[in-house]
C-alpha cells in the first residue's frame, strides 16, 4: 500500500483513503479495509498546518479526515465509511456487520457509543480541576458500560472480530494516556475491555494500523503545546 501526495491522488486510484497517521478514526478505516482484503491508496493529510485542497473539496462540511474516495466520489465519517465498505464490496473476504437486522442495529449503536471514549478522554487531558474530574468520571462510566456489553464474549459481536471491535480498538492506544491524566486504571474499571484490547492487538489488521501508546502520548504532548496547555 503506497502513500500518495495529498493533492495528486483523486483520479489515479479507484479507492483512496484521506487519513492522518495517529487518528483513531482513520485507523478504523485502515483496519476495516485490511479485514475485508480491499486494496487502496493511502493519502496522508496535514491536519496541523494547511489542509490540502483535496481534503477541503472532499469534505467541505467538516474539513476533516477520514474521507474515502471511491472512483473520485467522497464518503465522509469513519462509521459511515465502515458501513459503506460492507455495502459497496459485498464480495470481499468478509462483512463487518452481522446479517441479522436487529444485531446490525445494535452494532451501529455500540460503535457510535465508543466515540465517547475519545470525547471524554480528550477532556481528561485538556482540562484541569473539577472539569477534569467530571470528564474522568464520564470516561470511567463509558468504559464500564462497554465492559458490561462485552461481558464474557470474545469480541463485541460474539466469536468474530466485527463492526464494534473495528470502531473501538483504535482507542486502546490512547487509553494509557487517559489513565495517566485521569488517574485511574483500566484493569480496575473495565478488566474485560482491557483483556479484549490485548486480544485485538494480536490481529494483523490491528497491529499494522495502530501506533504504540508512547507515540500517542507524544502526540498528545504536542497538542498540549499547540493549545498552550500546561
Automatic annotation (TrEMBL):
GO molecular function annotation: glutathione transferase activity
Keyword Transferase: yes
Cell compartment(s), UniProt: Cytoplasm, Cytosol
Catalytic reaction annotation: RX + glutathione = an S-substituted glutathione + a halide anion + H(+)
UniProt keyword terms in alphabetical order: Cytoplasm, Transferase
GST N-terminal domain segment(s): 13-93
Entry GO terms, CC: cytosol
Source organism, top-level taxon: Eukaryota
Residues of the GST C-terminal domain: 100-219
Alphabetical list of Gene3D superfamilies matching this protein: 1.20.1050.10, Glutaredoxin
One GO process term, biological-process aspect: glutathione metabolic process
Broad EC category: transferase
Keyword Translocase: no
Catalytic activity, EC: 2.5.1.18
Pfam families cross-referenced by the UniProt entry: GST_C_2, GST_N_3
Family matches, as InterPro entries: Glutathione-S-Trfase_C-like (IPR010987), Glutathione-S-Trfase_C_sf (IPR036282), Glutathione_S-Trfase (IPR040079), Glutathione_S-Trfase_N (IPR004045), GST_C_Tau (IPR045074), Omega/Tau-like (IPR045073), Thioredoxin-like_sf (IPR036249)
Role summary: Is involved in the conjugation of reduced glutathione to a wide number of exogenous and endogenous hydrophobic electrophiles.
PANTHER family, sorted: GLUTATHIONE S-TRANSFERASE, GLUTATHIONE S-TRANSFERASE, GST, SUPERFAMILY, GST DOMAIN CONTAINING
Family membership: Belongs to the GST superfamily.
Protein name in the entry: Glutathione S-transferase
Organism: Digitaria exilis
Amino acid at each position: 500500500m503506497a502513500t500518495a501526495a495529498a493533492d495528486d491522488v483523486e483520479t489515479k486510484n479507484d479507492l483512496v483513503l484521506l487519513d492522518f497517521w495517529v487518528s483513531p478514526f482513520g485507523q478504523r478505516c485502515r483496519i476495516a479495509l485490511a479485514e475485508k482484503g480491499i486494496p487502496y491508496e493511502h493519502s496522508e493529510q496535514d491536519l496541523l498546518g494547511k489542509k490540502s485542497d483535496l481534503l477541503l473539496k472532499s469534505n467541505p462540511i467538516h474539513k476533516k479526515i477520514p474521507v474515502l474516495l471511491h472512483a473520485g466520489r467522497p464518503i465522509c465519517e469513519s462509521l459511515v465509511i465502515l458501513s459503506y465498505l460492507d455495502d459497496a464490496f459485498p464480495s470481499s473476504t468478509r462483512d463487518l456487520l452481522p446479517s441479522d437486522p436487529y444485531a446490525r442495529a445494535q452494532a451501529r449503536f455500540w460503535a457510535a457509543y465508543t466515540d465517547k471514549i475519545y470525547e471524554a478522554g480528550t477532556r481528561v487531558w485538556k482540562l484541569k480541576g473539577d472539569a477534569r474530574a467530571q470528564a474522568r468520571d464520564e470516561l470511567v462510566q463509558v468504559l464500564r458500560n462497554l465492559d458490561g456489553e462485552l461481558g464474557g464474549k470474545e469480541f463485541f459481536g460474539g466469536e468474530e472480530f466485527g463492526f464494534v471491535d473495528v470502531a473501538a480498538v483504535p482507542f486502546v492506544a490512547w487509553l494509557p494516556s487517559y489513565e495517566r491524566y485521569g488517574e485511574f486504571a483500566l484493569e480496575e474499571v473495565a478488566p474485560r475491555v482491557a483483556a479484549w484490547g490485548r486480544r485485538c492487538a494480536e490481529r494483523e489488521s490491528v497491529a499494522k494500523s495502530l501506533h504504540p501508546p508512547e507515540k500517542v502520548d507524544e502526540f498528545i504532548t504536542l497538542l498540549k503545546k499547540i493549545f498552550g496547555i500546561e
